[in-house]
Amino acid sequence: LDYQHVQVPFEITLWIMLASLAKIGFHLYNKLPSVVPESCLLIFVGLIMGGIIYGLNDKSPPVMDSDIFFLYLLPPIVLDAGYFMPSRPFFENIGTILLYAVVGTIWNVFGIVFSLYGICQVKAFHLQDVSLLHNLLFGSLIAAVDPVAVLAVFEEIHVNEKLHILVFGESLLNDAVTVVLYKLFRSFCEMPTIQSVDVLAGVGKFFVVGLGGVLVGLIFGMTAAFTTRFTKDIRVIEPLFVFLYSYLSYLTAEMFHLSGIVAIIACAMGMKRYVEANISLKSHTTVKYFMKMWSSVSDTLIFIFLGVSTIGENHEWNWPYICFTVIFCLVWRALGVLVLTFFVNRFHVNTITSKDQFIIAYGGLRGAICFSLVFLLPDFHRKKLFIAATTVVILFTVFVQGMTIRPLVDLLAVKRKRESAPTVGEQIHIRFLDHLLAGIEDISGHWGQYYWKDKLEYFNSKYLQKILLREYDQPKSSIVLLYEKLERKHAIELAEAGQLGHGPSHPSLLHNDRTVVTDRKLEHTLNPDVLENIQEILTRNLYRIRRMGPAYNRHTLPGETEPVEHAKEILILRHKSL
Amino acid sequence: LDYQHVQVPFEITLWIMLASLAKIGFHLYNKLPSVVPESCLLIFVGLIMGGIIYGLNDKSPPVMDSDIFFLYLLPPIVLDAGYFMPSRPFFENIGTILLYAVVGTIWNVFGIVFSLYGICQVKAFHLQDVSLLHNLLFGSLIAAVDPVAVLAVFEEIHVNEKLHILVFGESLLNDAVTVVLYKLFRSFCEMPTIQSVDVLAGVGKFFVVGLGGVLVGLIFGMTAAFTTRFTKDIRVIEPLFVFLYSYLSYLTAEMFHLSGIVAIIACAMGMKRYVEANISLKSHTTVKYFMKMWSSVSDTLIFIFLGVSTIGENHEWNWPYICFTVIFCLVWRALGVLVLTFFVNRFHVNTITSKDQFIIAYGGLRGAICFSLVFLLPDFHRKKLFIAATTVVILFTVFVQGMTIRPLVDLLAVKRKRESAPTVGEQIHIRFLDHLLAGIEDISGHWGQYYWKDKLEYFNSKYLQKILLREYDQPKSSIVLLYEKLERKHAIELAEAGQLGHGPSHPSLLHNDRTVVTDRKLEHTLNPDVLENIQEILTRNLYRIRRMGPAYNRHTLPGETEPVEHAKEILILRHKSL
């Protein structure tokens, strides 16, 4: 028997196996997952495992290594989150999300820290030796909402899209704030004196860390898209690039002390559109499936490890401090949400209801990120107190809040996610309104959301697509292919009969009027995959029509619309001939 | 900048990226891969990389770690090989393959070793200090054909299926022999005296290592199949089990000093059939795609590392020894193939032609396995000589033989792989002959290949399938689903008209006559995916008919065929009603 030779991969494989089997186990009993969130069950399995290890070895089970967590377990989950992020609601609410993520987190940190510092001054609690700086360090890690925990719970309760994106977006983007505050206070710990310059530099760092992360992510995302242009002859390694480049973006950001989470999200959101157009359908299935699988395993492992690491002798149970931490976390978050939403509602038409506010405040779950960070704290004599407080806060939020949020959502009748996908009619309508609003913003000279979206789309179609997409942009839907084939046949017939004249052949014009014709055919298609494809094509091509149509753009000359007129004429000709 | 924090994953990712980009690079120039095998190009890239590292650091670049190779790079390739192994030609030629793999490898080892030992006695070569035992160690690692190198070259030249499986099967199964001989001689190195008992124990080990590997593999394979029975509600982690269990089988086998390669092949071949039936179509696409991707990346990395590791100062260039090693490798392999094939051809109807023999002998490429093993040799003063000899043999076989084998295959007009898949008619014919032969063997009391296959199939359908498959065995093909739906509708109509009587409903009988009806529909289907599905269903169900049909089995009573008669009657009734 030669165990140490294979020990590392063997134990990793066994842990993953345990995680997967635990997942299967829960789903065998249909009732269990509908009452208790999976994350709770997994922590419970972890607790049992930890108890067994503790009982057998009579020493604390190994805690989750922070390096393993940040380098190997977290990236797949964030990649999955970024890749499948619904971009429309995300960008529509980006202002609110950033407000919650940046201002809200800072509010929480300082609220919790100064209240806790106040508690530390009470002599009866024996906490006078916990300095303000240590409290600041603790506050910076305990204040941030955890994306893994939020995702695990919110994926199961199906609240409406806006509410989901607000909580989830906040949990992702507050990483930049957490990183900055945590590192700032850590460096303060090591400094003899703190000057006001250092504090100012800290504020400047927010922007560097956040925007730097976005930049790194976008660079890697664009490179990934560019690389997949050349994989036509070697389809089998296409999915690899999606994973490699996003992981590299994360590692590079971490290397430069930027926000890795922000980087990987920017990378995934940036590349998605181009990569999807470049790679084959099977590669894309593999990418999607593997991403889901990987994040699901990571997620499972994280919760199991959370449970395992809880058992042991790493804790100092000073209950006043711990209880007040839980209370302050809840209170300050609730206050923060109320105050910030008040301002948001004043400037937005689409207000956040008080029910939504309650769920946002209540959904502020803490998870494995703070757990990993608390073990990374510099050693000092009350570190075990912080570990105990963090553990209790995580268990409280995941178990109590996680288990009661679903009944509360039912009780409050919070608006749910709509079950069906939007119909094509709705999609066209939404898009029509987008264009209308972009036009209105353009005419009125207001540089709003639609104006920028319009500009970005223009930049995309004019430059980015040409560089990043393979030249032959073939539609994937079989119905469109069939239609093109029929059209080509028809065009040849027309040409043979001499009716077409010297105009361009129909198929080359189809890129413009495909959408119109597809729409007519829609009543006959019910297959959701095909429908999705059609919607994707609509998404792309409706825009093209607007770009080529008679513009309400101040910078377009009438002469530029000529090809569209030409296309229209031929379209009319074609309709007549039919 | 915090590089060492992310160093490990960053460098791994960069190496994989380099490998993938190199692969894309070759395929951009279509002419290159058609002349030079990819493995040569990759070694070349590795040589350049190694040269750069050597030039910059002025010391030898790091050699490929044997642990990394055996634990992380080799398993994906072997898994891919085992999973996509064409089982029919493999089992048809299993005797010949085993003969080549076991007897042939032993022949090669001892042939090469004693010839080299003879060379060592020549005073002019200054090799008298290389003992017989050291030669034996060297021989045991240099004699074995390498599956990775063989796969890389033979996948590109498309020889006929039998020839391919003979060379490839040998390269996979000789692992057991290599492991035994290598470990035996290593332990001899450390023993003060060698007794004849030790040699006998070594011979016994062959069976333990080989059959033990098969056993470990089958146990894990069956467990994997059993696990996928329960993944219906959690499709997303299905692909994971295929990878986890096969990797565990490899690691477990390695842990017990059994043949990991044999174990993973047995695991993959054992589970494939059941896993495919249990998991969803998308999961299966992911499994297939990811396996190909992973093995492709591993393969690329191995060849690049081979190139990198070649550069440096690890070599002792004693040219007589090196040249004679190359010559003896070629000569003894050629002799071995000739002698063994002589015996094979005497006992088989389907003979191996002299052209095939030449390609088998010439296709005996060496690769990364011997390279990793030579670095694992115990330290002694002429280890560098062995490293040099191994490097030259690998480069010679991969470059010279690998690059000339394609022109030689063309020149000799070796029978190629047929381009098209066998038609359904052919498949039915082959299967019919199988049953006929099984019947003949059964009647004549000859326990041949078909008899055992029949028994295995019986055991499978009677016990294994019941345990390992989910109970509702739904066909995946949409055409069959549609057909069942139409049938069900028809049955309801018949029932309403009172024509059906008290017979069982049609759909429940469809399992028996589905094949007949599907065949009639075949002319209308051209989609290869659908065709493949149909062929799969045929494969399963034609057997079922034979099992349920009036048997040429001595142990079946006439009464047992009653349900078939019943089904037939209803089929006739149905045909009339149509």
UniProtKB/TrEMBL annotation, chains A, B:
| Signal peptide location | none
Q: What is its main location?
A: membrane
Supply the InterPro entries for this chain.
Cation/H_exchanger_CPA1, Cation/H_exchanger_TM, NaH_exchanger, NHE_CaM-bd
**Localization of this protein:** Cell membrane
Q: Which residues form the Sodium/hydrogen exchanger regulatory region domain?
A: 524-578
Q: Where is the Cation/H+ exchanger transmembrane domain?
A: 17-409
Q: Which family does it belong to?
A: Belongs to the monovalent cation:proton antiporter 1 (CPA1) transporter (TC 2.A.36) family.
List the protein's name. Sodium/hydrogen exchanger
